[in-house]
Design a protein that fits this description.
With about 100 residues, the protein is α+β, with helices and mostly antiparallel strands. It has helices at about 20-25, 50-60; strands at about 5-10, 10-15, 30-35, 40-45. The protein is built from two helices and four strands; from the N terminus they run ββαββα. It is elongated, with a radius of gyration of 27 Å.
Length: about 100
C-alpha cells in the first residue's frame, strides 16, 4: 500500500489508513517512537515509561486503603540471610581515634 507525504506546519506527515490503524490498535494522540534503521523509517507505539514520582503520587492518591497487606512470614528458617563481606558491619579503624 502506498501513501503520500503531506506538509503539516513546518514538518512532513504520513497519514495512516484506517485499516492499518485499526489492525495495530493505534489511536489519535498516541505516542509513537520513530527510528531510522538502514535507510528505513520504523514507526512503533512508544513504550510506557513509568517514573518513581508518578508511582509515589498514585500511592498517595490511593491512601492507606491502596497499600498492600503486610504479611508476617515468621522467623528465619534456613539460609535466608547471606553472610558475606557486604552484609557484615564494617569495623571502624582505630586510626584517627584518641
Amino acid at each position: 500500500m502506498q501513501v503520500r507525504i503531506a506538509k503539516w506546519g513546518n514538518s512532513l506527515a504520513v497519514r495512516l489508513p484506517k485499516a492499518i490503524a485499526d489492525d495495530l490498535g493505534l489511536t489519535e494522540g498516541q505516542a509513537m517512537d520513530v527510528a531510522i534503521e538502514r535507510g528505513v523509517v520504523n514507526l512503533k507505539p512508544a513504550t510506557a515509561r513509568v517514573r518513581l514520582s508518578d508511582l509515589v503520587a498514585e500511592a498517595k492518591r490511593l491512601g492507606p486503603a491502596g497499600h498492600p497487606e503486610v504479611v508476617a512470614w515468621g522467623g528465619d528458617v534456613g539460609a535466608e540471610i547471606v553472610e558475606d563481606d557486604r552484609s557484615r558491619p564494617r569495623r571502624r579503624s582505630r586510626r584517627g581515634r584518641r
